[in-house]
2-C-methyl-D-erythritol 4-phosphate cytidylyltransferase (Clostridium bornimense), 226 residues
Amino acid sequence: MNKNIAIILGAGKGSRMKLGYNKQFLELRDEPIIVRNIRTFENHCEINGIYIVSSKEEIDKFNKLIEKYNFKKVRGIIEGGKERADSVLNGLRGIEQCNIVLIHDGARPFVSENIISEGIKYAKKYRAAAPGVKVKDTIKQINEDGFSIGTVDREVLISIQTPQCFQYEDILKAHEFAKKNDIILTDDTSAIETLGIHSYIYSGDYNNIKITTAEDIAIAEKILEN
């Protein structure tokens, strides 16, 4: 089997932005963030299908967007869970069998086709892969009283992005193991590490931002200008 499936996580509430609605529907130049995401995966020649993870209340809204923009590769909308890891597990259980699965944050509207291509390539070779960029700022370690006690070497630090790409059976097994053992996960590379599998980190893009706060909207608009 040589099938690559994308899961786009769209169940987040975006409470930090205080929008009063799901940030996936926030419009950048008259187009919802989630639409920009779906289109990039839709147009990629190596992506065979797309599934969106949504809150139960917004499934109909996502379906209407899919119909409006005539996306052909979207295979279904899957109901999310309480936490991100629950939503990912629901997504993994709800998609069709595939070779490589790409798990992407719906709030990252500027993912490039190259990042997707590289993720598929390296996941096939190494079982797990994720894009990342080097940390620009100086990172300090502090003690419990708030005082600096050391400087962390930036050369060994990477800010991880999505899509995070895996061989399907591996990441499904990893998330099921984490769920069964109440392991708290920060992302999907953390999940795969529970099986002793280490993700290959390839070059991401500083434009591949996650829109989390109101300030990020201004950054996103600037990216579009350029």
User: Anything to note?
Assistant: Residues 209 and 219 are 9 Å apart (CA to CA). The first helix runs from residue 33 to 42. The helical segments are 33-42, 59-69, 84-94, 113-126, 168-180, 188-193, 214-225. The first strand starts at residue 4 and ends at 9.
